[in-house]
């Protein structure tokens, strides 16, 4: 109700919206919902023909002693953001500690630095942005260092201790970090409790199991968005990658099928992008870690090039990594880190994954050329040609 005002739903889309109404139970046999009307403090029974569960996800709060302190925040909802903003305006913190070096952690590192704070990040895995390969994350790490963000990797926070108006985070290795504010950004978990309570099955990822029509195991109950799984088009297995793009597409398909219009959601390749200070980064498909975990043989190439012709003003560096089959060259995944103009190139790789293209196919693409936007040999073409050389003949 932020992007689209409540009145627009009612007046322009003919959708009845009941805010401050909480669904307490689902009865699939009677096709009814038990709803609590908070403003009027009453319980209602609502009938449905088809039901779409879109309960989203919530921020994970790790079981760290002291994580419930008023100076410890999470960031998932607009209210979370408002609370952080109000705290900063009121207390003018000088030091901030971020627990978790993923999307939210890295973007908040930039935001808090812009508010004048000295920022530190603690990441329990070996490097920031654990979804990326270590050699690509290293480029991001260098940018964080350049921006004076301190990173503590491969270590976890064991305890948070209040010390007057400051907090002390005790790391597993004994080090102690003092801060005025702590942000927890260690991922999200699907909200599935309501669905489970009425017999809806979860998949292997812990999110709601759905088919390509977003239907659950219970007749006339569908699910979509951050509470539901999606099929990964590279592995052909269920995946849980909660992104806004996926939620929008799944919601459209669920809406179609709930209203009698046949529609299918083919799947995802996990395409995402983000910004870290002066760097753009993006990824799609599978990483080296995922391929190794799945025991899929692969090879990788990584190249460094420019986003523009070298003679054009202000060309930025761009790093491209491709992961592919050594047998037939099928593309498995790709990662990009670089300056302005880098990240959206990931969409070419996402398209290639959807079409099950090989690195040879990628090398032959007729990509656009103009000095302000790309060299004659775009970084993607350079990487693809390097990959072709490693495919068995």
TrEMBL record:
Gene Ontology MF: a single term: oxidoreductase activity
Annotated Pyridine nucleotide-disulphide oxidoreductase dimerisation domain residues: 273-376
Keywords assigned by UniProt, alphabetized: FAD, Flavoprotein, Oxidoreductase, Redox-active center
Superkingdom in the source lineage: Bacteria
Span of the signal peptide: none
Limits of the FAD/NAD(P)-binding domain: 12-238
Entry's family note: Belongs to the class-III pyridine nucleotide-disulfide oxidoreductase family.
Stated name of the protein: NADH oxidase
